[in-house]
Amino acid sequence: MIATVIRILSVPLVLVSLGSSVAAAELAAGKDKAGMCATCHGLDGIAKAPDAPNLAGDSAFYIAEQLKAFRSGSRQHQQMSIIASGLSDEDIANLAAWYSAIEITATMPAVE
C-alpha cells in the first residue's frame, strides 16, 4: 500500500523534471536558432534593425503563430517569408520558447 502511494506521488515529480529538461532543451535550441535572427531582432530580442519588431518577452503563442503565418504565406514580408519557409515546427517552437523566456523591464519616465 505504501509503495503504491509513493509511486503515485512520484509521478508528478518525474513529469516536472522531464518538463524542465525539455524546456531547457527548447531554450538551448532556440538560442542556437536565434543566431540567424540576431542581425535584425537581436539575440536578446531587442531589434537592431529599425523596421524589425522587438521579440523579447512576447508571448510564445504569438511568436509561433507569426512565424507559421510567414512560412505559409498568409503573412508576407520580403525577408521573413524566405527565412520562415526553412523553419520546421520544432524550430518555430524553440524560437518562440527562447524569445518569450527573455525577461524585460520597463521604466516609466519621470514626469513632474
Outline the structure in words.
This protein is mostly helical and 112 residues long. The chain has one domain (2-101): Cytochrome c-like domain (Cytochrome Bc1 Complex, Chain D, domain 2), CATH 1.10.760. The chain has five helices and no strands. The protein starts with a helix and ends in an 11-residue tail after the last helix. The model is unreliable at 9-19 (pLDDT under 50).
Which labels suit this protein?
mainly alpha; globular
Summarize the structure.
The protein is mainly alpha-helical. It has five helices and no strands.
Level-2 CATH architecture: Orthogonal Bundle
- Largest β-sheet summary: none
Could you report the average pLDDT, rounded to the nearest whole number?
A: 86
Number of strands: 0
The CATH topology turns out to be Cytochrome Bc1 Complex, Chain D, domain 2
Strand content: under 5%
The number of helical elements comes to 5
Shape by Cα distribution:
globular
Low-confidence stretches: 9-19
Q: What is the helical fraction, as a range of percent?
A: 55-70%
CATH superfamily: Cytochrome c-like domain
Q: What is the alpha-carbon Rg in Å? A: 19 Å
Whole-number count of domains: 1
Structural category is mainly alpha
User: Secondary-structure element order, as H and E?
Assistant: HHHHH
Write the layout of secondary structure elements.
Elements: H1 2-34, H2 38-41, H3 60-72, H4 78-85, H5 89-101
Helix pairs in contact: 1-5, 3-4, 3-5
